[in-house]
Amino acid sequence: MDKKMIRQAQELQAKLVKAQEELANETVEGSAGGGAVTIVVDGQQRVHSVKISPDAIDPDDPGLLEDIVLAAINEALEKSQQLAQERMGAVTGNTKFPGLF
Predict the structure, then answer these.
(1) Helix 62-92 and helix 3-23: axis angle, to 10°?
(2) Structural domains of the chain ordered from first start
(3) What is the pLDDT of residue 7?
(4) Confidence of residue 88 (pLDDT cuts 50, 70, 90)
């Protein structure tokens, strides 16, 4: 490997690290049940908050609330993954690197 390639690899690595750090500060929101449950997740798929409307709590049907929470989490995680792919793709020129994202 020549010096130019090594330098380019180092620059790409620095850009990737910066993009990952920025993803930690960006959030997306997923909701379900007509907004009864809202989940906020960052670009690194970490959950920051869960909000449940009191109207969504039915002691006679806990399974319904569980399903709504699960749907909201899955939506938020999907949005977070899309955000990460967009940001990392911008850095890599949409070149896929196994295990990166």
Answers:
(1) 150
(2) 3-91 (3.30.1310.10)
(3) 86
(4) confident
Phi, psi (degrees; rounded to nearest 5) at 79: -65, -40
Q: Which helix (H) or strand (E) holds 19?
A: helix 3-23
* Helix H or strand E encompassing 42: strand 37-42
48-62 pLDDT, tens digit per residue, is: 999 999 999 999 999
**Residue listed under structure tokens 């959030």:** 27
Q: Locate tokens 């009864």: which residue?
A: 36
**Measured distance CA(58)–CA(9) in Å, rounded:** 55
Size (the chain), residues = 101
Q: Which residue matches tokens 């989490």?
A: 73
Average pLDDT over residues 60-75: 96
